[in-house]
Structures are given as C-alpha cells and as structure tokens.
Amino acid sequence: MHSAPSADRVLLSAGRASELKLPPATCNNAIRPATISSSSRVPPPSAHSRAKSRAPQILSWLFPKSRKKAKPPEMMTMPPTAIDRGNVSQLLTEWGALSLESLKKELAEAHAHRDAALREAAEVRSSLGELAAKLVSVEAYCAELKKALRQATSSPSVSRRSTRSAEASRELPMPVSHDVMVEGFLQIASEARLSVKQLCKALIQQVSDDAGDGLSDRLNLLLRPYQLALAGGGAGRQCSKTVLHHLEAVMNQAMYQDFENPAFQRGGAPRCLDPAEDRRRSFAAFVALRNLSWNEVLRKGTKYYSEDFSRFCDRKMSGVVATLGWCRPWPEQLLQCFFVAAKCVWLLHLLAFSFGPPLTILRVEDGRAFDQMYMEDILQDRQQVQSPCQVKVMVMPGFYVQDRVLKCRVLTTRSAS
To answer: At what angle do helices 215-223 and 307-324 cross, to 10 degrees?
Structure first.
C-alpha cells in the first residue's frame, strides 16, 4: 500500500498514462473504482496488485539490468574452497615443473663441491700424517744426539784433541756456553738437511707443473749414472724415495762444496788473521742472520744484510744452475726454497767456524765399505746393517762435533762376494 503513490508519481512524470486518480482510503480499506476516459469499464485492480505487477517493469525500464557473463557450468557448480584448492594445486604444479631442473643442477653442484672438499681434506690429512711422522723421527734423532752428547761430555776417557778444543771454546768470550753452541749446531745441521730435501722436492714439482721447460731431461741426465729416471706424467707426485735421495746427493754435493774453507770458497782467506777474533765475527754473523726471512730478502735483498752471504748465494746459485744445466728464470717458490737451503748451509758454516778449532765436515766416497760408526743408511733397516754392503752414494755429509760424530747419511748396496 505504501508503494502505490510512488508508482503513480512515476507514471505521472513519465507521461505514459492519462489522468489517474486514486480514491482516498476509507477506514474499512474500501477502494472505489476509478473513472477512466475510455468507454469500457473494467474492475480496477487493487493498488497492491498494480504496484506488484507494474513496478518491476517500470524499474527495469528506468534502470536496465547489466548483462552478466555466463559462468561455466563447472564454475557454477564448484564451491569457492574447491576453486581455491584447484588454483593452488595448479600453481604448485607449474612452480615445481619450472624449479625441478634448477634444483637438480644445484644438487649436482653441491655434490661436486662436497667431493672436492673431501678430496682436499684427505690430502691435508695425509700431509699432516707425514709431517707428524717426520716430527717424531726428528724428535727421536735429537733425543739420541742429546743422549750421546751427555755421555760423551761425562765420559772420563776423552781424547786430548777434544779436551783442548773444549777448553779453547770455553775461553772465548762467547755470549753462550759451549753446550749451547753444540746444540745449536746440531739443530742447524738438521734444518740444513731438511731444507735441501725440500729444494729437491720443489725441483721435481717444477717438472710436474711445467713439463715443457726441459728440466725433466736435465734431471734424468743427472740420474742416469745411477740407472734411475723420473716417472712420466705427474712425476712430482709419483717420485720414489730412491730418486729423491739420489737427487739430494747431487744437490748436497753442490751446496757443501768448499765447506772446509773459512770463506766457503776455493782458495778463500779468513776474515781476520786472529783466530779468536775470526771466531767471534763468525758467531756474530750467525746471530745476525739467524732470523732472516724471505720477505725481508724480497724487500731489501741479501746484500743489505750481509755482503758475504750475498756473494755465497750467487756462487751457489751459479753452481746449482751449472749442475742442472737449466738456465730458465726460476719461479718464486723455487727461489724461496733455494734461499732457505743456502741460508741454512751458510749458518752451519758460520757456526762451525765459531768453534776453536773449527768443526770438520765428514764425507765418504762411493764404493767405500759401510761403517756403522760414521755412516747411516737411509733406506736399509737396522737389522740389515750387519750384512756386508758398501756405499752406493753419499746423500748428506756428516760432521765431527768435538768429541763425537754426526753421521753422514748414505745409500748402500750389497757388496760383491
């Protein structure tokens, strides 16, 4: 009943019907029939039925309904949760298809990095094992040297020569005692032996790194008299101990040449004519160069620290180059190994001439009968030393250290019966 007046107003304003008058409502809700200009008279419908029948048509004419797109049948029947689930599943499927290959690639790279890390760890573990074994052997060797030194110094039966040498050395105004000097000489001798061995390893490694520089042929030429040769293809990693020891013998022969001379050169003269002053100068030079490092040499050169040491390095470098017959520029790592070896040998010479009289080097020639008192076989077991054998080659020289002997190391062969 409240919608009829609004509908009538809409009809009057639209002008689509002639004058239409609604009778006033009575108390008993009786509606009188309206008078229409047409001659025919029909029973008027109620206001409620007219509003109900015409309002939707008029409203739809004034406000046409927007056409909605028809939804697919399956979308109309699927609930929202099912639609969301389908979209998520499709997205996950597409994402998995795109990233599967990249994940496989990353996994393969991770496996490759892991394998490389495991190989490096195995190499480091192997190197640490070798270093530990070498350290144990060096410690045992030093313990034997200390024990022999204590026995020799405490023994009452000492030769006259060793007694005079000890007394003369104690009379020197040295800043350290005689025993400290002996221990220092044994330590430097061990460092010198290890440094020459490291130099030989660096030479063999240079053959492995740069096989086309002719060094391999030079080394094989040096090993030919011993019927040995470097292994082909990665010789630096597959070199046997026998080949390494024979190469050490060649290098030690060049490094320790003219060790007996006070100037460490053929026909050289001592620094000072006074023996005591010459010993003091030798020991002072030893102390000054003991801690000289490779980095300091790179910055200022050897001549800045000692002209004698600089000339010694030049002579030994020329001798090694002449022995190898290899005149190409040396890489820095190889030069550093040579510097360490030359420094240790030079320090050993300075300390040997700090004693009075100077300590004497011990050499043996090839073919001499093996003597356990003065020689040590590197490769042979101690149980096999009793069997008759002779020196094949001297690997490292020895020294007469006052009243005892630092044995030279040799390679032996069975004596011809």
So the answer is: 80
